[in-house]
Amino acid sequence: MKDRTNDSPRDTSLAQKLAMLFGLTFVAAGVGGFIPGITTDLYDGLEFAGNDGSSELLGLFKVSILHNIVHALFGVGILAAKRHASSLQYLLYGGIAYVALFVIGIVNAGDWVPINDGDDWLHAGLALGLLGAWAAARGAEDPDLNRGRRLEMERDEPRGGTV
Fold first, then answer.
1. Are 81 and 24 in contact (CB under 8 A)?
2. Does pTM surpass 0.90?
3. SS3 of the chain: helix, strand, coil, percent, to 5
């Protein structure tokens, strides 16, 4: 009989770990945008949407109510981390979205979203981080497929005893 003491119930790929990390970070940023002390000028400067508010997360990044909600929802990476393939998609498409936000900020086309210079640099960093994570993780084997193969081999394995 095969020794299964070293097998984890679920192998986790690099893509899944990174999607979880990014997802948790986005949820923290989204929630943090509503917490006094973490967000400056919260009561008088937080607008629902647009670039007119004066509230800043950590005193660096402009935020709005909608912006905070979108960040929290972008935490979907936590759910994407359930599977290797969805983790890779989250990292790739998230990276592309942040490239777009970076360009929007650079060309000053973001009147509908609160963006300042700090946000532009953050969006560039997030784009590089997400796309870099995708590039680093995309060549790895899919543990979900490997688990299925392992289960098939275990099912076909003799059960011990003599015939």
1. no
2. no
3. 60, 5, 35
* 55 touches 41 (CB < 8 A): yes
C-alpha distances in angstroms, 133 versus 13, 87, 103?
A: 12, 10, 20
CB 114 within 8 A of CB 62: yes
| Nearest alpha carbon to residue 135 among 12, 14, 11 | 14
Give the Cα separation of 91 and 97 in Å (integer): 10
What are the residue ranges spanned by the domains of the chain? Answer: 14-156
CA angle, residues 76, 82, 85, in degrees to nearest 5: 90
Q: Which helix (H) or strand (E) holds 150?
A: helix 143-156
pLDDT at 138: 93
What three-state secondary structure class fits 97? helix
Q: Which helix (H) or strand (E) holds 114?
A: none
pLDDT per residue over 1-40, tens digit each? 444 434 454 689 999 999 999 999 999 999 999 999 999 9
Helix (H) or strand (E) holding 116: none
Give the span between the Cα atoms of 38 and 56, in whole angstroms.
8
